[in-house]
Write a structure and sequence with these properties.
26% helix; alpha+beta
Length: 215
């Protein structure tokens, strides 16, 4: 289990990695001292959201989200790489679809979110309709895999969009550039995972452990 102090460290590291890369084009090295469990391999995603105020309402708009679903690299390295990739390599925000990589002037309006993932577990079913009962909204992240296609959505996504399980499966299929009903087809594999989520309450602000469904 990761503590709030671990989360504060992860958020600070992610922000420092992005700031340094944007300003110098150099990737930072891991600090000389860091929590022992960050030496372990783990899945990680770093999400960036632009915070704006419209009238009396605070809105958060996705600005980048990239990571490693599988425990391929030590967390300390995966956080640095994922943070930089989220800020500069998320193709959804490249022209003509978006403004391009995050600029230095944007950082004071961006909140950082780090999701530390459990290893994905294959769901075994006799009938695809069983997925509808086995997957729990607000707990499970999803990976849909078929041949060389793969799509992933974090567990907080269906809550934010108010999807039911079937909608969640359809959107994860679409994320893999496959038809929305691919989860029903023989040969498609569905994996679930969980996440511990830490986020800044406001840009450069206090860090909290986020319960899925909070904003």
């Amino acid at each position: 289990m990761y503590s709030l102090k671990d989360g504060e460290f992860a958020i600070k590291l992610a922000r420092e990695a992005v700031k340094t890369f944007i300003e110098t084009q150099n990737q930072i090295d891991p600090p000389s001292s860091f929590p022992e469990q960050f030496k372990e391999k783990g899945g990680i995603f770093v999400t960036l959201k632009t915070m704006t105020k419209k009238k009396d309402k605070i809105e958060k708009k996705l600005r980048g989200c990239i990571g490693f679903p599988y425990p391929t690299y030590p967390l300390i390295n995966a956080i640095i790489e994922s943070a930089i990739s989220s800020a500069t390599r998320d193709s959804r925000f490249h022209p003509p679809f978006g403004p391009g990589p995050v600029k230095s002037r944007e950082l004071d309006n961006i909140v950082f979110e780090v999701s530390i993932l459990t290893p994905p577990a294959l769901l075994e079913v006799n009938n695809p309709n069983e997925y509808l009962k086995k997957i729990k909204i607000g707990r499970d992240g999803l990976i849909v895999e078929r041949e060389h296609y793969r799509g992933l959505l974090l567990p907080q996504v269906p809550v934010e969009w108010k999807w039911d399980v079937e909608e969640y499966l359809k959107h994860t299929c679409n994320k893999a550039f496959m038809p929305a009903d691919c989860w029903k087809k023989q040969g498609t594999k569905i994996y679930t995972f969980q996440a511990i989520i830490f986020e800044e309450i406001k840009p450069l602000g206090e860090v909290r452990q986020k319960e899925i469904g909070e904003d």
